[in-house]
TrEMBL record:
Residues 184-235 form the HNH nuclease domain. It comes from the Bacteria. Gene3D superfamilies: 1.10.30.50. The lineage of its organism: Bacteria, Bacillati, Chloroflexota, Ktedonobacteria, Ktedonobacterales. It comes from Ktedonobacter robiniae. This is HNH nuclease domain-containing protein. Coiled coil: none annotated. It holds the Pfam family RRXRR.
Length: 433
């Protein structure tokens, strides 16, 4: 098992080269020659003057719509690798906030003058959901720059052919004609599904256009996400996907969703502009998916993952490095909720103390052999523990059974895991490689 890396800062706070000499570090800490400034990743700051000679560190960034991979290499060794889980709840939270705001104004304001005419968007404006992803990607690179002497940043940008993602055999004039050439949407769906209910196979009854993935669950109104259903089947299906309704084959017929690919294509410009302003043109370079795939498979022999892609991006052509056996998992956290009152007639003020039984939201805890974070608290009752990466509910336990593992800092929840637990199926879009 390889030893963990300890990151070192100078007296003035400038990053120095990391070290694996744990005995030396513990000696400094005991003697008061150094102090701990960060638990994860473990970082110390020296309290005495030392030489500031450093070697250049190259950072690789694998941009994505849900997960971003970052890695740093120097002298043929990986000194940092992490996965950043981006927030995907911004749009839903803003919809909820808008609902609360409008209801509050309807209750408390008799008349409010329209203000839509005096609002202007800037040239480089991004929707809040995409701006959050771009800023989190840049923030992850800034974290590395605060730990290591970064000399160069390599960013992979993805160019997605969305039509080829849906139809791999497309070529030539098919790009101009499209799927609905000569059809209306309803007539196309009727012919595609042979005027039959996709769920009960009923014919000769009124059929409705039905979304395989409901719009409330992120599904679009593209023809690939539409099918036919009779009224009883459409009512029973409700807000479920076709797979949840018991028809996985129909779910499989829906083409690849394009939302994630569009997100990556949009935020790449903002990410590059912000990194260019931080590090300068001379220290920023752009790479593409085919280069990453060649280096990851042919040179390094690594399986597909966000961190392995980031390691390949950080490497120079012909350079061989070995990834570390552990990876940092960083989850972006929200600041709080927007609801101020609840109850049947909004008569109760929502209690939101900073601590409940000594615990705050999003603290990493251990209970009944399970490690997760606090996703919900009850003033009189159990706490809800959720999975670190996916946010799925694990267990409910009393606060007396909890054991604190780590606390969130700077809007992040940082944990360390073995690399084998990180090689799972990827979600969203990262790169065409």
């Amino acid at each position: 098992m390889e030893s963990s890396i300890i990151y070192v800062l100078s007296v003035s706070g400038q990053p120095l080269m990391p070290t694996k000499r744990h005995n030396k570090v513990w000696y400094w800490l005991r003697r008061g020659l150094a102090k701990v400034v960060r638990q994860e990743p473990f970082t110390i700051q020296l309290c005495f003057e030392t030489s500031t000679y450093t070697q250049p560190v190259i950072v690789g960034v694998d941009t994505g719509s849900k997960t971003v991979g970052v890695a740093a290499t120097t002298n043929g060794e990986v000194v940092y690798q992490a996965e950043v889980y981006l927030r995907t709840d911004i749009s839903a939270n803003m919809t909820q906030r808008r609902m609360y705001r409008r209801h509050r104004r309807a209750r408390k304001t008799r008349y409010r003058a329209a203000r839509f005419a005096n609002r202007r968007r800037q040239v480089e404006w991004l929707p809040p959901s995409l701006r959050s992803k771009a800023e989190a990607t840049v923030k992850a690179v800034r974290l590395i720059a605060s730990l290591l002497p970064v000399g160069k940043v390599n960013v992979e940008v993805g160019n997605f052919d969305t039509q080829r993602m849906q139809h791999p055999q497309i070529s030539g004039l098919d790009y101009q004609q499209g799927t609905l050439q000569g059809y209306l949407v309803r007539e196309y769906v009727l012919e595609k599904w042979k005027r039959t209910c996709a769920y009960c196979q009923a014919r000769g009854v009124p059929l409705e256009l039905e979304h395989i993935v409901p719009r409330s669950r992120g599904g679009g109104s593209r023809e690939s996400n539409l099918t036919l259903a009779c009224y009883p089947c459409n009512e029973r299906k409700g807000q479920q996907t076709a797979a949840e309704f018991g028809y996985p084959k129909i779910q499989a017929q829906a083409c690849v969703p394009l939302k994630d690919a569009a997100h990556v294509s949009v935020i790449k410009t903002s990410v590059l502009q912000q990194l260019r302003s931080l590090f300068g043109d001379a220290h920023l370079s752009v790479t593409y998916g085919y280069e990453t795939k060649y280096k990851r498979i042919q040179m390094l022999g690594l399986p597909k993952s966000h961190t392995n892609d980031a390691v390949a991006i950080a490497c120079e052509m012909g350079e061989r490095v070995k990834p570390r056996e552990e990876v940092y998992q960083i989850r972006c956290l929200p600041r709080g909720q927007y609801q101020r009152f609840n109850g049947r007639h909004s008569e109760h003020k929502c209690w939101a103390p900073r601590k409940v039984r000594g615990y705050k939201l999003y603290e990493v805890v251990k209970a009944k052999g399970v490690v997760g974070y606090i996703g919900g608290r009850r003033e009189k009752g159990s706490f809800i523990i959720k999975e670190l990466s996916s946010g799925k509910k694990l267990i409910e336990v009393a606060p007396s059974k909890l054991e604190r593992v780590a606390r969130p800092t700077q809007g992040w929840m940082i944990t360390r895991k073995p690399i084998l637990e990180n090689l799972r199926k990827e979600g969203g879009a990262s790169s065409p490689s």
